[in-house]
């Protein structure tokens, strides 16, 4: 959901956090190949240096995997040109090396490094020259082949030329490389000789010889190889060609070709090097003569090395004659022993036992010989070769190695289920104690696979009773887990001691529960029920219940618990089962028990379980437990949850606590708020304060929650506390304030936050003083609650007089009626010159019928304005007519008022804004927000709210939501008219922002505008305020 990611990133205020989020999002965009999103997230990073370094590192990683599209985006996003040029040079060279020429060109063009551009221009020119030379060479070869096909005296040559030319016509391309590869694959020896005589260019001859000889060696064309090697005149070619031919021929199994090539090498050092390189391939060959040739071809001082390389592959393939020769040729005894041991391992893996016996016997060092026999015995036992296994074990001289080899052989045989071999080994003549160890090793794999007869044989073979019991306990668990009831029953029933039998039963029950094998568990339970000792029965069923709890088998657990008779043991078992269920996250198990409060403080897994459930918002078990706890225990649990950083659990517990316990301290005087501050849980801090926690509470050292957050360096927590009213200037018992704690611990980001707090406090002090002055000025001008109430009483009186005198359905509307007064200078009952009194008359007995809407293009104004005269203020009389229906066929909006209106906005918007502020801060005068010193901050808050309303709608005409009608909006005046009113919204927003930034200018205007009252009296002339006329009926 990339849109959600982008929105969340845009909501992050902290720049470092936002940059890190952009990096995380960009990494996921790369992972999912979302190139557009990758580019968007990179461009959203504000720190250019951090962005450049990250882009460089990620581009280098992407280049390793040749993800060139990612590399291009990342490199292009680097702002620092010098760093970008370095990356371009690196990636251009890498792309050129991998033949990604279009990618190389991209980085060359992106770079501003002229040296790099010049370098690739030269390389491009060289590439073009090489291409031209290749084209010329191909053309010359084509002409030579055509000439030979017509004029050669040898029929074979002409035929071979025709074949090569036909290949050229088939694929429409011919080069020396292609032709030489085809000639070598076909074995055209005569054609090679003819071409070497005709071609004049030495590089073409060299290419022809090397490629055709290599191709011929791969396909075993001895005559062509022989012809090429004999025709080599160039010294360098004489050295390189035979070596290459020998390597290719030996790897493909063409040893006669390889032998001839080695013989053609004149330089002994090069011959030695070639022989050592192809020795392993020669060792796989069954022919002794070729091996002898190879060994004879190397210098004497390298013969041991050659034999050492050749022997293991020969041994692996079972070439006893070759192995015998190679071992006998080695002179150094140490090298020979190491070679024989290594080769014996290869032969053992291939089950070449005659070769293994020879190699082991050839080792002179007795210790290495014994180890070789032990390893061979283990391999033989694994493969099921009984006689070889016995021979190898009996051949070991050292007793400790022999014992170890014997046990490893038994284990190897059983692990591969070669039980007949294992049984024979266990019957060999060895000390009983060693055979008992072998039985201990052998019984578990057999029991796991359910081999009853073998398990029975092993148990009966063990001579010592203690070891026999150990075998039973070892074998019963895998047998039960895999559901082998017969094996389990035998192991249990064959136990002589009741305690051993019970232990077998308990282990079997636990494993059967883990493996879900109810039939095994039922069979074991029947065995236990036959016991007479009730204590042993309780022990068995309690262990079975705990095992079932660990596996999440609630029903099986309860079934076992019901069989526990002893009340004390049952209580302990309940606790252990609940703990086991919680440890493994099994809700169905934990919900079966009444969790005692003390368990939560004693067993961390229970606390972890409830925290996990709280994360999923599944708190039914927790609520049940909390309902049994005292308030003090709940608070203790809350403090423990916060201390253990189980935040989700703390939130769940908060819902069960009352406000009066939040500030109760622990033994060290720390409240829940302080512990949350210690851990930096800002969400929990905000919730605690919201629920009534006191931010200025102090611990035993005089530290507040904010002090502790600053000591720990938690910026978000400190900000939340400051926003909630915490005092950053508070001094603890040592006289340290928050700034000092942050300085001592090197929390630079926290220091910046505290600096802004103190600066804001200084500004706030100035604002509070200015607010008080402005409030006094408003009071002096009559803007008080009492005078507003008087204004409303006068308006009500005037309304009643109008109805009585005019005898019409007349209604007083607007600011005069609402208590705002119709003067923004002073409140004394008089109407300001730029204001009026609004009357609305609902005309009776007339009903309008609208057919299809109004098509009139002109403007209309339903309100009739009466100018001021003497003591009479200006009046607006509006006649309102009823309509037969609110339905209109015209889908366009009908604008009833489109006349020229003042370029101001209605006070209705201001009133609506005030309603939203009242909803937020309360309507009582004793509410903290509505204090005189907060006047400026309230104005700023209201302006910010207004700006957010404006920004919340994309419509150019909508201003803000209606307070009383949630599905309606308030619009800007003259919205939709067009012309100069098109940019009304942007102009209003700009002006509001300016006022918000320069609040002092607004205060100065108010100071000039407001006029103190000369008298406390109100001016009220009711008959001068009534409308002059009423409409005719």
TrEMBL record:
Matching InterPro entries: Ankyrin_rpt, Ankyrin_rpt-contain_sf, SecEffector_AnkRepeat
Q: Where are the ANK repeats?
A: 668-700, 701-733
Keyword set for this entry?
ANK repeat
Residues spanning the signal sequence: none
**Do the record's keywords include Acyltransferase?**
no
Q: Does the keyword section mention rRNA-binding?
A: no
Pfam families in the cross-refs: Ank_2
Domain of life, per the record?
Answer: Eukaryota
Know the name of this protein? ANK_REP_REGION domain-containing protein
Origin organism is Macrostomum lignano
């Amino acid at each position: 959901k990339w849109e959600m990611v982008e929105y969340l990133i845009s909501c992050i205020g902290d720049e470092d956090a936002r940059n890190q989020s952009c990096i995380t999002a960009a990494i996921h965009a790369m992972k999912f190949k979302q190139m557009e999103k990758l580019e968007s997230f990179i461009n959203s990073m504000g720190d250019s240096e951090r962005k450049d370094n990250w882009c460089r590192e990620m581009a280098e990683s992407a280049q390793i995997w040749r993800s060139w599209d990612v590399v291009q985006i990342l490199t292009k996003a680097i702002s620092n040109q010098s760093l970008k040029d370095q990356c371009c040079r690196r990636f251009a060279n890498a792309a050129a090396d991998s033949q990604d020429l279009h990618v190389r060109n991209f980085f060359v063009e992106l770079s501003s490094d002229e040296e790099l551009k010049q370098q690739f221009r030269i390389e491009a020119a060289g590439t073009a020259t090489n291409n031209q030379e290749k084209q010329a060479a191909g053309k010359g070869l084509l002409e030579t082949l055509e000439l030979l096909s017509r004029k050669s005296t040898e029929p074979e040559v002409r035929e071979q030329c025709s074949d090569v030319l036909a290949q050229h016509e088939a694929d429409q391309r011919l080069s020396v490389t292609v032709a030489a590869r085809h000639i070598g694959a076909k074995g055209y020896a005569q054609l090679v000789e003819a071409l070497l005589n005709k071609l004049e260019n030495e590089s073409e001859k060299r290419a022809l010889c090397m490629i055709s000889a290599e191709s011929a060696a791969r396909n075993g064309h001895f005559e062509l190889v022989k012809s090429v090697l004999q025709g080599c005149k160039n010294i360098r070619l004489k050295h390189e060609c035979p070596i290459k031919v020998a390597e290719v021929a030996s790897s493909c199994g063409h040893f006669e070709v390889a032998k001839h090539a080695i013989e053609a090498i004149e330089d002994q050092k090069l011959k030695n090097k070639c022989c050592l390189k192809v020795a392993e391939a020669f060792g796989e060959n069954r022919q002794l003569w070729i091996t002898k040739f190879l060994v004879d071809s190397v210098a004497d001082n390298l013969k041991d090395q050659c034999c050492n390389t050749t022997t293991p592959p020969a041994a692996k393939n079972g070439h006893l004659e070759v192995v015998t020769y190679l071992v006998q040729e080695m002179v150094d005894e140490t090298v020979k022993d190491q070679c024989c041991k290594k080769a014996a391992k290869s032969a053992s893996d291939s089950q070449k036992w005659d070769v293994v016996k020879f190699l082991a016997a050839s080792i002179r060092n007795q210790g290495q010989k014994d180890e070789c026999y032990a390893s061979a015995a283990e391999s033989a036992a694994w493969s099921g070769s009984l006689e070889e296994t016995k021979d190898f074990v009996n051949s070991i001289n050292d007793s400790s190695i022999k014992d170890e080899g014997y046990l490893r052989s038994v284990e190897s045989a059983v692990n591969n289920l070669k039980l007949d071999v294992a049984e024979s080994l266990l019957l060999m003549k060895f000390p009983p104690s060693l055979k008992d160890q072998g039985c201990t090793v052998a019984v578990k794999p057999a029991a796991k696979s359910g081999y009853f007869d073998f398990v029975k044989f092993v148990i009966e073979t063990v001579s010592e009773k203690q070891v026999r019991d150990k075998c039973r306990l070892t074998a019963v668990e895998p047998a039960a887990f895999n559901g082998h009831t017969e094996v389990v029953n035998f192991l249990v029933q064959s136990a002589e001691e009741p305690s051993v039998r019970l232990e077998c039963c308990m282990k079997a029950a636990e494993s059967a529960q883990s493996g879900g094998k109810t039939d095994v568990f039922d069979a074991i339970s029947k065995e236990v029920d036959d016991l007479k000792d009730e204590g042993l029965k309780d022990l068995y069923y309690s262990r079975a219940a705990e095992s079932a709890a660990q596996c999440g088998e609630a029903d099986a657990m309860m079934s076992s618990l019901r069989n526990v008779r002893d009340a004390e043991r049952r209580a302990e078992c309940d606790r252990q089962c609940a703990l086991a269920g919680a440890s493994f996250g099994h809700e169905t198990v934990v919900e079966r028990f009444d969790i005692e409060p003390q368990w939560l403080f004693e067993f961390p897994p229970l606390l972890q379980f409830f925290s996990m459930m709280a994360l999923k918002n599944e708190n039914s078990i927790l609520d049940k437990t909390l309902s049994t706890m005292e308030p003090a225990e709940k608070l203790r649990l809350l403090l423990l949850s916060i201390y253990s950083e189980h935040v989700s659990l703390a939130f769940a517990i908060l819902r069960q606590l009352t406000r009066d316990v939040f500030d109760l301290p622990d033994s060290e005087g720390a409240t829940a708020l302080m512990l949350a501050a210690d851990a930096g849980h800002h969400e929990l801090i905000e919730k605690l304060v919201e629920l009534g926690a006191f931010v200025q509470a102090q611990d035993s050292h005089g530290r507040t929650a904010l002090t502790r957050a600053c000591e720990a360096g938690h910026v978000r927590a400190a900000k939340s506390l400051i926003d909630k009213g915490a005092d950053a200037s508070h001094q603890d018992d040592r006289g340290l304030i928050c700034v000092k704690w942050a300085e001592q611990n090197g929390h630079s980001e926290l220091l910046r936050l505290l600096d802004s707090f103190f600066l804001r406090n200084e500004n706030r002090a100035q604002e509070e003083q200015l607010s008080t002055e402005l409030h006094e000025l408003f009071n002096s001008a009559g803007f008080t609650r009492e005078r507003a109430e008087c204004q409303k009483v006068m308006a009500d009186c005037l309304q009643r007089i109008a109805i009585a005198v005019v005898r019409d359905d007349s209604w007083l509307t607007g600011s005069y009626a609402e208590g705002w007064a119709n003067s923004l200078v002073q409140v004394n009952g008089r109407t300001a010159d730029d204001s009026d009194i609004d009357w609305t008359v609902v005309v009776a007995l007339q009903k309008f019928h609208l057919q299809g809407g109004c098509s009139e293009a002109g403007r209309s104004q339903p309100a009739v304005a009466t100018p001021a005269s003497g003591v009479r203020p200006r009046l607006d009389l509006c006649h309102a007519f009823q309509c037969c229906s609110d339905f209109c066929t015209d889908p366009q909006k009908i604008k009833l008022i489109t006349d020229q209106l003042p370029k101001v906005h209605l006070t209705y918007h201001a009133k609506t804004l005030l309603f939203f502020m009242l909803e937020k801060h309360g309507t009582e005068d004793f509410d903290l927000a509505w204090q005189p010193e907060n006047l400026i901050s309230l104005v700023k808050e209201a302006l910010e709210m207004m700006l957010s309303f404006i920004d919340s709608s994309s419509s150019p005409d909508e201003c803000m939501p209606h307070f009383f009608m949630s599905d309606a909006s308030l619009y800007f005046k003259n919205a939709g008219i067009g012309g100069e009113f098109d940019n009304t919204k942007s102009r209003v927003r700009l002006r509001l922002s300016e006022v918000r930034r320069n609040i002092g200018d607004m205060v100065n205007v108010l100071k000039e505008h407001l006029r103190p009252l000369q008298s406390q009296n109100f001016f009220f002339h009711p008959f001068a305020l009534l409308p002059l006329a009423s409409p005719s009926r």
